[in-house]
Design brief:
211 residues; alpha/beta; 7 strands; 35% helix; 17% strand
Length: 211
């Protein structure tokens, strides 16, 4: 995998690359990877979250540079070596918070790509593909095996794709695609990845040499 693929794709609206926003919880014991923690304990879950978050931050800094930022739910501690502008996530459910991020970036004249921090096989090529897709479509989605997505990019805010969604279910990506189709919104679907939510996912990750 190449973490450091340079992103030079320009969007038609702004003639600038999209801003990639890492969307994550601050590493606080008991507040992260709660499903994983039920199987392996809070300390192991926290360590996994820290490692995945740091890996994602390193990736986007290398791949996106000044065109990346982080939106945290909670306060960062000294263990988070960001190298990015830090923003506080606004209140609301997941969809409301992601919409606020997209709107904030759009107000700066840029397309937005919101990416989660718990996918150990995400790489620079994948981010580049997401940026490239936004030249031609309204929305790009990076699905994961559990039915959700690790990444969503938008050339403009589309509240209907983010609000009143049943999050953390196996139908999130499917429902998003159905809504987009009904609205006539063009979508690019990237290859499916997987993220770390369970003890099985943790073992799968540890079996790979991607850290």
């Amino acid at each position: 995998m190449r973490w450091c693929a340079a992103i030079t794709i320009m969007t038609p609206e702004s003639c600038a690359p999209p801003i990639v926003a890492v969307f994550a919880r601050a590493p606080v014991v008991g507040r992260v990877k709660t499903r994983l923690a039920r199987a392996v304990g809070d300390d192991v879950a926290l360590a996994a979250h820290r490692e995945l978050l740091q890996r994602t931050l390193t990736l986007v800094v290398c791949a996106c540079g000044a065109d990346a930022e982080i939106w945290l739910d909670g306060n960062a501690d000294d263990s988070v070596d960001v190298g990015l502008q830090i923003y506080a996530q606004p209140p609301g459910d997941l969809g409301q918070r992601m919409l606020a991020v997209v709107e904030s970036i759009q107000q700066r004249g840029r397309a937005a790509i919101v990416v989660g921090s718990d996918c150990p096989i995400l790489d620079g090529d994948y981010l580049q593909a997401a940026c490239a897709a936004l030249r031609d479509v309204d929305v790009v989605i990076g699905p994961v095996e559990d039915g959700g997505y690790i990444l969503i990019g938008m050339r403009r805010p589309i509240p209907e794709l983010l609000l009143d969604m049943r999050w953390s279910t196996a139908t999130v990506t499917q429902e998003t695609l159905q809504r987009a189709k009904r609205m006539g919104v063009s979508v690019a679907l990237l290859p499916r990845l997987w993220d770390v939510d369970s003890a099985d996912d943790l073992r799968r990750w540890r079996a790979l040499d991607v850290r």
